[in-house]
Write a structure and sequence with these properties.
Helix content is 33%, strand content 18%. By secondary structure, it is of the alpha/beta class. It folds into two domains: 151 residues, Alpha/beta knot (3-Layer(aba) Sandwich), CATH 3.40.1280; 55 residues, Trp Operon Repressor, Chain A. The structure holds adenine (ADE).
Length: 224
């Protein structure tokens, strides 16, 4: 998979991709992430990328021309399965969206700033709009990192068996059951007997029941 990310602040996103699982994915050749600085496509001597909105409301708007030039140049080089704008008014990210995107080959992410992007960029290029939650960040960069992480960890070969994505919360529509490791008793708190029993079918049943109970308590909406 290849992910291209357009941003005015690409530096902000470098470290997540330089460490841990995302780095391993890139070292193994399973995912490549490329950053593109929008400033390079800015207009005039000052490489302008934003301007005051028509209609006179507050804040600045990312101009259509630099964004169109940057996106068009990338689209001329390869076919993107989705061109995704990270924005608080997009569809809220969930595991299903991450699963679907993990099957794609080329993704292009656009990070917004200021009051957003000129509407014509959406009309010309954007195929999907994604929000990472009902709150407003200073820009789309951290949202792009969250989305890339959620997608890349699902690529075959990125996680080893122990980290397997199959038992994640949400993957089967339920939250994960509690987990324990040694010691079997700590400050009077005991690991549930069944987990020490060695009876794998009983353990399976217990894990499923716990997942159901926890989901019912914390996120009953997931059971509807
Ligand atoms: N940009 C600013 N806030 C955002 C959010 N919640 N999700 C995605 N992109 C954003």
């Amino acid at each position: 998979m290849r992910i291209d990310i357009i941003s005015v602040l690409p530096e902000l996103m470098e470290s997540p991709f330089r460490t841990s699982i995302l780095k391993r994915a890139s070292d193994k050749g399973l995912a490549e992430v490329h950053f593109h600085s929008l400033r390079a496509y800015g207009l005039g001597k000052y490489r302008q990328i934003d301007d005051a909105p028509y209609g006179g409301s507050a804040g600045m708007v990312m101009m259509v021309e630099p964004l169109d030039r940057c996106i068009s140049e990338l689209k001329a080089q390869r076919q993107y399965d989705e061109v995704i704008y990270l924005t608080p008014d997009g569809e809220t990210l969930n595991q299903k969206i991450a699963n679907t995107l993990s099957t794609k080959k080329n993704l292009l992410f656009l990070c917004g700033h200021y009051k957003g992007i000129d509407q014509r960029v959406r009309e010309l290029h954007i195929t999907k709009e994604i929000s990472i939650g009902d709150y407003v960040l200073t820009g789309g960069e951290l949202a792009a990192c969250v989305l890339a992480d959620a997608v890349i960890r699902l690529l075959p070969g990125v996680l080893n068996d122990e980290q397997s994505a199959l038992t994640d919360s949400f993957q089967d529509g339920l939250l994960s059951p509690p987990v324990y490791t040694r010691p079997a008793e700590y400050k009077g708190l005991k690991v549930p007997e069944v987990l020490l029993s060695g009876n794998f079918s009983k353990i399976e049943d217990w894990l499923h029941d716990e997942a159901l109970k926890i989901t019912q308590t914390k996120r009953p909406d997931l059971l509807q």
